[in-house]
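Quick start: read one record
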Amino acid sequence: MSTITRISTPYSYATAVVAGDYAFIGLHRGFGESFAEQFECAFAGLQKTFADIGVPLENMVKVNVWLKHIEDLPKMEKLFYNYFAEGNFPARMTATTKFIDRDCLLMVDRVAYLKG
């Protein structure tokens, strides 16, 4: 039987849940005026969560990105290169949605592989 570890938040979700060989990383959003600022802030939060569970960012195997505006997709594509080497990108799904917080331009959630 494997142990399940949760990094809780004051809300009704966990920042991360580690189960078996995988870590499921809950939503991270960024703050700032521009899309790039929000993207960088969201990734800073992700890096902290990954550090908290002792996993390098390179172990990210799946990412879901929710954009407020599909027009931000080309900016997002370029920003991913700041975090991953060519050929080492995680599998990704990108979609648009309306957020509860009006100032929110993107949210991300992830899956990471703990071994290797």
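Strands lie at 4-8, 14-19, 22-29, 60-67, 91-96, 106-113.
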